[in-house]
Design brief:
The protein has helices at 3-17, 20-41, 51-74, 78-92, 101-114, 123-133, 140-152. The chain has 153 residues and is mainly α. It has 2 domains: 3-92, Hypothetical Protein Yqey, Chain: A, domain1; 101-152, Arc Repressor Mutant, subunit A.
């Protein structure tokens, strides 16, 4: 089942079970996808965005909510932080499991060897490959630091 269809089915299920947090979060996800679909029409892509782009959108939504939760915690609003974390849990159900640090290290090593990279000039190419091949599964900030550390040694 395509990711888009899976989200639509989950919206219907959340309506049936009257799960308010899940329903509102899934509606936000659906609205963001539709917004990107409309933007894609301007780029002459009438059939909408692909699953990889939806995955990138979900990653962005998770990151935004993590930042919001941290801000709420810092400002003494734990109930709002908890709401953000519950939305993160809903969104993550549609994302693949993230790579562990050891798996990420192995991926970085393989791409560095594959590209015969020896200096930081190759970092952009390696990061592009990681982002394309592991969309939604890798924290790109952590990956960037790992690639940089590997290339500088």
């Amino acid at each position: 089942m395509a990711l888009r269809e899976e989200i639509t089915t989950s919206v219907k299920d959340a309506m049936k079970t009257k799960d308010a947090v899940r329903l509102s979060t899934l509606r936000l996800v659906s609205a963001a996808i539709k917004d990107r679909d409309i933007a894609a029409r301007g780029e002459d892509r009438c059939d909408g965005i692909e699953d990889s782009e939806i995955m990138a959108l979900l990653s962005k939504m998770v990151k935004q909510r993590q930042e919001s939760a941290t801000t709420y915690e810092d400002n003494g609003r734990p109930e709002l932080a908890e709401r953000e974390r519950s939305e993160i849990d809903v969104i993550r159900k549609f994302m693949p499991t993230p790579l562990t640090d050891d798996e990420l290290k192995e991926v970085v090593e393989n791409y560095v060897k594959e590209n015969d990279a020896t200096c930081l000039k190759s970092m952009g190419k390696i990061m592009g490959q990681i982002k394309a091949d592991y969309a939604g599964r890798v924290d790109m900030g952590k990956a960037g630091a790992m690639v940089k550390a590997y290339l500088c040694n």
